[in-house]
Give the backbone structure.
Amino acid sequence: MPLNGHYQAELIDHLLSIDSPEAMDRALANLLTPAEYQEISKRLQIFKLLREGVPHRKIAETLGVGIATVSRGSRALTTLPSSSPSSRNDAS
């Protein structure tokens, strides 16, 4: 396994070991800069709004991101497995 792959595996293991929303918030706040945390949060909102059928331009306006960011999110969304946690949460 490449070194970066090992680091990523350790990150995934660490995040999977977190047992509460509060602990996850603290972990993410410690791991990421405030800007990174906000960007990841917006990326998830892009996925959510795209699944709801909101037009790209409306998403860009609503979240204060560029249309290219929404388009990138749209391309990334097509590669996500349908069993991803964010997909399951949208169904509830």
DSSP finds six helices and no strands in the chain. The helical segments are 3-16, 21-31, 34-51, 56-63, 67-77, 85-90.
